[in-house]
């Protein structure tokens, strides 16, 4: 391999910039003890040579691996999959690699085994995507010295956490339908045991109570389009149903199919609002009104919080919940 073919190393940068190896190291580590003109020469040499600092070598100096661990559950679901992507993007932007362990079942032993796998790999800290209540007992048993951030867990977990304001998302959806003139809003909830399903149901209930609207019986699905279809077949037989808030867009998709088969026109006869704003939501028939979650922002806040923990900052200074937004499309309108 010729010099032109081999990757540039720090000594190459030092030679081109006309400085010492130690000066290059100070520049790359952000030391203020470097003159501006020297810093500019070093950075120009880095750019010209395409030099990339070796993360392992830097880790030997800082006693960090520059790798974070992520434990996640069932990435087939849109929400957890997008949260994982947002965390990975934020980690790369911060100069960290990511090691991922995906669990098929959620229990104490499974979560702890995943965390121990990551600690054996020398990660600096972990982010646990924990949308299920079953993860709570495991999270209390994490290795004490290990910095950890939990995403989408309930306050009962008692660990530094980042989440979307599910109560506000539900309020936006239900308030939208009530403001259109519907006397009440029916709810197709997510499965028991999920923090998000619990909070979205609570937000629906609180918003109805605040408006003095009656609270209809709750239908429950399992996040899948199939369960939304089955619930839709039941709701289609009830003439009192004029508006439905669905806990995620996949179930809303199945609900729309069931209504179409029964000849129920959306939104002319029944308005429907979903949750998540999946990429297909704008292309359903009709285009789905839904609540959008900013998963990239969840990733950024998770990363910032974990970095604060790594720097021994106040772990109680948690970021505020990420505020969702309502995206109004064609599936909701005033009742007949």
From TrEMBL:
<dbReference type="InterPro" id="IPR010982">
    <property type="entry name" value="Lambda_DNA-bd_dom_sf"/>
</dbReference>
<feature type="region of interest" description="Disordered">
    <location>
        <begin position="315"/>
        <end position="336"/>
    </location>
</feature>
<dbReference type="Pfam" id="PF13377">
    <property type="entry name" value="Peripla_BP_3"/>
</dbReference>
<dbReference type="GO" id="GO:0000976">
    <property type="term" value="F:transcription cis-regulatory region binding"/>
</dbReference>
<keyword id="KW-0238">DNA-binding</keyword>
<protein>
    <submittedName>
        <fullName>LacI family DNA-binding transcriptional regulator</fullName>
    </submittedName>
</protein>
<feature type="domain" description="HTH lacI-type">
    <location>
        <begin position="8"/>
        <end position="62"/>
    </location>
</feature>
<dbReference type="Pfam" id="PF00356">
    <property type="entry name" value="LacI"/>
</dbReference>
<dbReference type="InterPro" id="IPR028082">
    <property type="entry name" value="Peripla_BP_I"/>
</dbReference>
<keyword id="KW-0805">Transcription regulation</keyword>
<dbReference type="InterPro" id="IPR000843">
    <property type="entry name" value="HTH_LacI"/>
</dbReference>
<dbReference type="GO" id="GO:0003700">
    <property type="term" value="F:DNA-binding transcription factor activity"/>
</dbReference>
<keyword id="KW-0804">Transcription</keyword>
<dbReference type="InterPro" id="IPR046335">
    <property type="entry name" value="LacI/GalR-like_sensor"/>
</dbReference>
